[in-house]
Design brief:
With about 280 residues, this protein is an alpha+beta fold. The chain contains 9 helices and 8 strands. The strands form 2 sheets. It has a 6-stranded antiparallel β-sheet, with helices on both faces. Strand 7 and strand 8 form a beta hairpin. Helix 2 crosses helix 3.
């Protein structure tokens, strides 16, 4: 999954920003800086952060200095770059710890990685998007890498379509009405009829394929994991370069993803949904 850039913050004093206390505004600005820093693993310069967030360099410096004191960010004087700090990781890790299925899923992801030689991922749905919680990287030199915490539209990702296949038609329609069908690549599904037909295929075969719909040159095969109520808990996938993970190979790996998701469902105390539930 490719990470999504956060929307730029409003410029200081911009009309229409509404009355806000200075403390609340400072929190919003600090969070916008953390979101911007989280997009660049190589670090970001202060001037770039100012441009990206719409804040003045002096405001950015003041906020970064405060965040640095609390270890949410860190500054590398050798190249003048700002990076995420260890405290940001500690706080963010709490989100993963609350998902008590992540650790038990790792052996299944490692097995998938070894069986397919591709990167194995686990993600959850959040407000119309898939969020990658963890992954086990392929050992191949050329491989697909998903940034943990990275997001992708559900309608454009294998894991997202796997989970969407468990939704009712009304719920899918509501999600599309709210988030749309973005054209991210020439292969993205941009029509409701095409999406509906795709979800029928997913339900029939038990796995979903992202056929270069999110990133050109990357293909993904995914399946849904169910909870004790038979509802979608999360999804697992393998992703790789389209030149290696061809459409034919994706179809061949589909049953493996489906069966692994079924095994993980059982290991977590979940169950497959009853067809009578609709």
């Amino acid at each position: 999954m490719r990470e999504r850039r956060a929307a730029p913050a409003k410029a200081e004093g911009a009309p229409g920003s509404g009355p806000r206390s200075g403390s609340v505004q400072s929190v919003e600005r600090a969070l916008s800086l953390l979101e911007a820093l989280g997009e660049d693993e190589e670090g970001t310069r202060l001037t770039d952060l100012a441009l990206r967030t719409g804040l003045s360099p002096s405001t950015v410096h003041r906020l970064l200095t405060t965040l640095e004191q609390r270890r949410f960010v860190q500054f590398d004087p050798s190249d003048g770059m700002w990076h995420m700090g260890r405290q940001a990781f500690a706080v963010g890790a709490a989100f993963v710890r609350q998902r008590n299925f992540v650790a038990p899923a790792l052996p299944f992801l490692r097995r998938l990685r070894d069986q397919t030689r591709e990167t194995a991922n686990l993600g959850v749905a959040d407000d119309g998007e898939m969020v990658c919680l963890t992954q086990v990287e392929s050992r191949e030199i050329m491989r697909a890498i998903t940034r943990v915490g990275g997001r992708a539209p559900m309608v454009s990702s294998g894991m997202g379509k796997a989970i969407l296949s468990t939704y009712s038609e009304a719920d899918v329609a509501a999600l599309v009405a709210r988030h749309g069908l973005p054209r991210l690549t020439p292969r993205s599904l941009t029509g409701t009829a095409a999406l509906a037909a795709e979800l029928v295929r997913v339900r029939t075969h038990g796995y979903a394929v992202d056929d270069e719909e999110f990133v050109t040159g990357l293909r993904c095969v995914a399946a849904v994991v169910h909870d004790a109520q038979g509802e979608a808990l999360c999804a697992i996938s393998v992703s790789g370069l389209a030149t290696r993970l061809t459409a034919e190979r994706a179809a061949a790996l589909g049953p493996l993803l489906r069966d692994t998701a079924r095994d993980l469902t059982r290991a977590l105390g979940g169950r497959a949904p009853d067809p009578a539930d609709g």
